Amino acid sequence: MSETKATLLKAPFELSYKYKRSSGPIMSQVFEGLAKKKILGSKSKANKVYAPAAEYDPHTREALTELIEVGPGGIIESWSWVHQPSNHHLIQTPFAFALIKLDGADTAMLHMISDCEKSDLAIGNRVKAVWSETPTESIADIQHFILDI
Amino acid sequence: MKKVAIVGYAQHKILPNAGALNEVELIMPVVHKVFADLGISQDDIGFTCSGSCDYLQGAAFAFVEGLSAIQTYPPIKESHVEMDAAWALYESILKVKMGDADTALIYGFGKSSPGNLDSIISLQMDPYYIAPLWPDRISLAALQAQVLLQNNIISPDDMMAAVLEARQHGASNLNALLTDLLTEDLYGSDAFKSSPLRGLDCPPISDGASAMIIASEEKAFEYTDNPIWIEGIDHRIESSNLGSRDLATSPSIESSVQHLQLKKVHFDVAELHTQFSHELPFLRKLLNLTNVPTNLSGGPLVGNVMMCAGLDAIGKTFEAMVNDQLTHGLAHATSGPCLQHNMIVHLERHS
Amino acid sequence: MSNDQAPKDYRESLIHLEYQYTAGSATTTFLNQVKEGRLVGQACPKCQAVYVPPRGSCPRDGIATTIEVPLTDKGCIESFTVVHIPIPGNPIVPPYVCAMVRLDKANISFLHLIQGVEIDNIRIGMRIQAVWKPKEEWTHSLENIKWFAPIDEPDIDVSTLRFQAS
């Protein structure tokens, strides 16, 4: 039994779930819009536009039902440059995660900026959406954003 | 409402990879230690509550397994939060305040080494708009760092100072994972992970466990002459709609500070659950702690046990107040991306 | 509204995570023995309960199980179920029998398969023994035991197996 303490047993283990999520009436429209290369935001009574569309206003708690098209261009509100993407990232060359305030929106959306250098990026720079040619009605139907100079 | 005090706290040495020690084997020693320090057993505990994350272990209801570290016969009153154990403390305080229990055992545990923490934390995010993009925890934190730098709320030098000081403090913390001292040159030559964060701006992957015991006023003096009173505790959360938050400020912390009436309290010590270097100068400024000794343990930058580091901030504040006979301590715990959810704890020692 | 214009109720959402699972020290010790064809449990030094497979602690007393207890590969069926549900990825074709196997001298049971008997003849208390794979196929896994099969011994009254702390 002397050897038993010395060996450390390790085994690779993969966890996969294929969930189905209900998108609900508001987000369903957003995802359908994305597949048609349109980004929808939702407008509050005070004319504040959340994009991508929120179901409720986090400040006033009102239900948001009026949808309007925003983007596909916008400005960078913040960014972080991923120097070495890991295998779970959707882009495998250096890219940025960014908070992007789309034209016509008052809040920012999280997405990615690709096809640029780190030194090209700054808060306030303009970007525009690049669309996937194989849409799946998902937020990733926007493949990423690129600089729009 | 009953007054509640912290009477004991124990922490496992933080490990980069606990390897052959499973969660139960990490929890048992700290629970036994905190009992031994007070000369009590599970029989003296009225309520037991733990904090952990099943995704770290990759098994549904993995937290139930953690209970194998606890004496459960005769059956015990028990609960669990899928959060940092600081929130298990919060639930336990409510139990004691309501008179449901006179004592509570709180424990937290986490092994980040077996999985990929970056992808696991992505799953904390909004599953419709954010998680499908797989943003890693470092890139999300970096978005807030960028905003703070852009607005001159903090500087790159502040971030470097936070890292260098954490190592200096960590050198005298027996449980710290990282204790090697760093120089400005070493920091400056460290590679960026997600700009503006370098590898050294991020907490190390850590495995460990901690345990704490709280007691009502009647019970506290049975265990110690020196209870540390939980004078105030408050936690608030901000929108999960990341893009609608103002990352240059923290409305959740500001409202807790106001609610707990902390503006005029002179703190002797503070421990903040600041996992990334930029968060420390940001919160010190926000909480008016610039001249208060903060994160003397080294904080999460020298050891960051997921689901436990928030409880550790409270435990380390307690330890400093007991050891150095301090009067007022402030502790902070957080969860969610970019300091979304924050807990503020005001501890007081009566002389 | 025609069907293809109606909003979809559900959208697929894939979660995929990879781990390097490490066995705890008790499990490591246990599986190292299993690789050699032995079943070794651990006993609580306080209540003497014998756990197999051991997890390193006594969940009753909350202390480490430090005493190693070699066990035989014989035991009885504490309970069982006939599985009719096909589970994706499971190579075993239903219906099959899953049983709580209680080894002799152990105080907990574990799940394993029962074969070598008509399903209708399986009963609680039935005596069983492990059927091992050929030795050259043994690994660090309870799958070294293909299944448990009945042996010609009188049934056990499982109510006598109830744990009494000593």
From TrEMBL, chain A:
Entries under Gene3D superfamilies matching the protein: 6.10.30.10
Database matches in InterPro entries: ChsH2_C, NA-bd_OB-fold, Thioester_dehydratase-like
Domain ChsH2 C-terminal OB-fold: 69-131
Entry superkingdom: Bacteria
SUPFAM superfamilies assigned: Nucleic acid-binding proteins (SSF50249)
Record protein name field: ChsH2 C-terminal OB-fold domain-containing protein
Species name: SAR86 cluster bacterium BACL1 MAG-120920-bin57
TrEMBL record, chain B:
Protein name (record): Lipid-transfer protein
SUPFAM superfamilies: Thiolase-like (SSF53901)
Superkingdom of this protein's organism: Bacteria
GO molecular function, one term: acetyl-CoA C-acyltransferase activity
InterPro entries per record: Thiolase, Thiolase-like
Coiled-coil portions: none
UniProtKB/TrEMBL annotation, chain C:
Record protein name field: DUF35 domain-containing protein
Organism field: SAR86 cluster bacterium BACL1 MAG-120920-bin57
Pfam families named among the record's database cross-references: OB_ChsH2_C, zf-ChsH2
Organism placement in taxonomy: Bacteria, Pseudomonadati, Pseudomonadota, Gammaproteobacteria, SAR86 cluster
Cross-referenced InterPro entries: ChsH2_C, ChsH2_Znr, NA-bd_OB-fold, Thioester_dehydratase-like
Domain ChsH2 C-terminal OB-fold: 68-133
Stretches assigned to the ChsH2 rubredoxin-like zinc ribbon domain: 35-61
Coiled-coil features, chain-numbered ranges: none
